[in-house]
Amino acid sequence: MSADKWAGLSLAELLTERQALDAKINTVRADTRNAVIDQVRKLVTAYGLTPAKVMPLSRPSEFAAPAQPNPIKKKAAAKYYDPNSGKTWSGRGKPPRWIADKDFTRYLIPAEGILRQMAQQLPPGV
Questions:
Q1: Would you give per-residue pLDDT tens digits along the chain (126 residues)?
Q2: Which residue segment(s) compose the domain that 16 sits in?
Q3: Which one, out of 65, 68, 75, 123, has a CA that is 20 to 30 A from the CA of 37?
Q4: How many domains does the chain contain in total?
């Protein structure tokens, strides 16, 4: 089809042509679709296929949605410290043996206190 056919047409005329073309495309698509469906039905019957064989419920991996990667879990910050062994505990879950049945406050890591001390050592305005 040459570009000359569309040259000189107004916008309204082009839109009318477009609507007519869209209608023709939909008609041809419907006719072709019906012919393809008929052909598939004949093949299914000829080969004794079942719907489960032709269209399995589980999707093949190439059509499946991509799996989301597992989010990286951050390790909880240590809240307690054993000065004898150097082991730490976040305070979550079952207490380890070195702190079980003891006063937890004795093993607290004084992070806030350390930060306050560091801030006091800095010159003013920094």
A1: 555 787 888 899 989 999 999 999 999 988 898 888 888 889 888 998 887 787 777 555 555 666 677 788 777 778 888 888 888 888 888 999 988 888 888 888 876 555 555 555 666 655
A2: 9-54
A3: 65
A4: 2
